Amino acid sequence: xxxxxxxxxxxxxxxxxxxxxxxxxxxxxxxxxxxxxxxxxxxxxxxxxxxxxxxxxxxxxxxxxxxxxxxxxxxxxxxxxxxxxxxxxxxxxxxxxxxxxxxxxxxxxxxxxxxxxxxxxxxxxxxxxxxxxxxxxxxxxxxxxxxxxxxxxxxxxxxxxxxxxxxxxxxxxxxxxxxxxxxxxxxxxxxxxxxxxxxxxxxxxxxxxxxxxxxxxxxxxxxxxxxxxxxxxxxxxxxxxxxxxxxxxxxxxxxxxxxxxxxxxxxxxxxxxxxxxxxxxxxxxxxxxxxxxxxxxx
Amino acid sequence: xxxxxxxxxxxxxxxxxxxxxxxxxxxxxxxxxxxxxxxxxxxxxxxxxxxxxxxxxxxxxxxxxxxxxxxxxxxxxxxxxxxxxxxxxxxxxxxxxxxxxxxxxxxxxxxxxxxxxxxxxxxxxxxxxxxxxxxxxxxxxxxxxxxxxxxxxxxxxxxxxxxxxxxxxxxxxxxxxxxxxxxxxxxxxxxxxxxxxxxxxxxxxxxxxxxxxxxxxxxxxxxxxxxxxxxxxxxxxxxxxxxx
Lengths: 298, 244
Description:
The complex is a heterodimer.
Chain A: H1 2-6, E1 14-16, E2 19-21, E3 25-27, E4 65-68, E5 71-74, H2 83-88, E6 99-103, H3 108-119, E7 124-130, H4 147-160, E8 166-170, H5 175-184, E9 189-192, E10 196-202, E11 207-215, H6 220-233, E12 238-241, H7 247-255, E13 260-263, H8 272-286, H9 290-293
Parallel strand pairs in A: 3-13, 6-7, 7-8, 8-9, 9-12, 12-13
Antiparallel strand pairs in A: 1-2, 4-5, 5-11, 10-11
Chain B: E1 3-14, E2 17-23, E3 34-39, E4 52-55, E5 58-60, E6 63-68, H1 73-80, E7 84-88, E8 104-109, H2 114-125, E9 130-136, H3 139-142, E10 152-155, E11 162-163, H4 166-169, E12 178-182, H5 185-195, E13 200-204, E14 220-223, E15 226-229, E16 236-238
Parallel strand pairs in B: 8-9, 8-12, 9-10, 10-11, 12-13
Antiparallel strand pairs in B: 1-2, 1-7, 2-6, 3-4, 3-7, 5-6, 13-16, 14-15
């Protein structure tokens, strides 16, 4: 296999929450469709499909994406077929690597019910709580609005899925306080970070183009700081990500304290195989294995 | 999604439009499918960051081409590319071709004429009679019509061909058992209306895209009961499927 040839001589494997992964790369939720899975075999250490919700969601009316310098703003609105159909189709995401499932609800009870539903399935290795998607409003706020909100929803999910690893996905705003709250409520790991709330305007038409979340290389320094701050504060592992576009970016996130690194928007413009190959070159040069890199800033 | 860096073989100016041809490295090209293309960067360009979707304009002897008009930063950089461009594997679902269905009308609006060149080539190769109708804003953009032998042309400002829309250049579409169209949504909706519900009516939509491979859900079009992705379920749709 092409991927394997390009990563020989380095140990890419990492372990998190008792799960062994062949590489530290994970697709960011909502950036890898099942139709595109065939091309990334061997690249990702786990697969993480688009967020699922209790019922089907049609999503937002177009336009949903707008390009910005070094990134894009999206407002998809969590379009998905709902958890039951998602679970029926789960085998489509089987690449022989652990499967993480991202969930989002509109109420704490929704979240808990989703955790119970997906965690009872043996094919699901871990559940990521999408607490920070800025597209979905809850009384004008997200579940990531503050430590109290985070603690409430994570506590409920912990009770609903007592044995399955739970990751809380956080936005960069107030991330340290929210990270502490998620950890104390029983989260096994933290995903840092989600897209940054953003707006694009069509000056010619004098109208809002897309109000949504910014992703891509533009957000990388913000994400790196968030990961660094969180990793120094909590004991649970961190899945870092935000604008990861190269193998060096992967290394930077791990040095900042991430155990796993999520690749999202960049996979639309680069073959993620290249990112993994570059990361392997970095490790080879450094004489290190991937697992040694986490938090290894001098 | 496979990413390729391809050498530019030739470029032609066709009035306001530019045609870039390149040796196609991938699998079989079909009319109506598309590539995501962008100027090469190291390892990517940051502004613009995303690639742009382009229909296959033509494909012959292993050489594919794409047609574009400079409208923003992405197409400006493509226009300046001299040696290589980056393209992805052929994407999307193309036109259905039914040799038994009868005469076809091909309607293109503006840069939406692009997939009709390769479609016309395929129809001719299969011996399917067809007529081509192309609509543009003005004579500058209409210059590309010279590359479509026998096409009827309309311009909005009357500077070339019939004064009016592409539908003003076409006879009654109800007479055609098969209608293919590509262009802006307003034009496609008008074609859908004029072509009626019977027969094979296929519309190729032009949507803003993020990824091109179904992952981002950014390029959706409305259908009964929700939205579908134009990059995977389209960009060619049966007219009756689109909830316009």
